[in-house]
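Worked problem 6 (solution included).
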Amino acid sequence: MSAVASKPMAEAAKPDAPTAITLIEAITQALAWELRHDDSVVVLGEDVGVNGGVFRATAGLQQQFGADRVLDTPLDETTIAGLTVGMAAMGMKPVAEAQFDGFMYPMVDHIICHAARFRYRTRGRLTCPMVLRVPWGGGIRAPEHHSEANESIFTNVPGLRVVMPSSPARAYGLLLAAIREPDPVIYFEPKRIYRQYKEVVADDGEALPLDVCYVLRDGTDVTLVSWGAQVKEALEAADVLAGEGISAEVIDVATLKPLDFATIAESVARTGRCVIVHEAPKTAGFGAEIAARLAEESMFDLVAPVERVTGFDTHIPLFRLEMKYLPSVDKIVAAAKRAMAAG
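Solution. The predicted structure is:
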């Protein structure tokens, strides 16, 4: 036998440690994971390939996965929506991008009349596993059609899921879940916080559950309910209220449709008060649905009227008044104090 000692086997490569990334980077990371692990996933939209998207959410993906998996389309939202529905009907998992929220409207016919009805129309024999990614909301000093908060239009449509993350970690996990979901998902991305802060996100392919609200902070005096970019203001308002002896529970709705109302109701049963925060116009905004459910199902738990802190019933103003239009920490704090004073 040879007297030469054998060399130890090389250690298996270890995955990189999780790093702090922005919300937009978390979206890129989730898309790359699914493209890498599921050959049926394709990404399509205006400028998503060569240029990596107007917000750079798809930067580098075409170079990595090829032009057959990351497709540049014509500047035609109606065609993008039709292609997406057709691909999904044929068993693919398309992830389309609407460049801005206000560009969704030409897509509505395909989304509402076809994507949302496949399961119903075929009595469950066909589904439509597509995701429409939509940069959403105000706060970036963009012109008209670039700052819409139009989520309530789609929460009214049977057959659609409506999802909106509020942090890098939830953006990653919820997008993975949306792509794996067999029914169509409208995935709104709050562009005001695309690069506002970073969070450690493990690129491990672990999806977060859809159809649940996330309790981000426990409290006993008032429940703050929000989604998207406004969750950050709600958390900051909770800090201000804590300094004044008011304990606020903060809930991120995350999936607006279907709504996990049970989590909101359980919180209001503890606190007796609720402040709903969203940047869409007040009239018929999704906050009105939550307030109505509270009136129907939780009236005897409430000790004060439900407060809503919202945008105004106007188009978002350009440009100097834009931040005045959006709910602020001060407005949320004032609403919580009104609720406290009322009961």
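Discussion: The chain has two domains: 19-201, 214-342.
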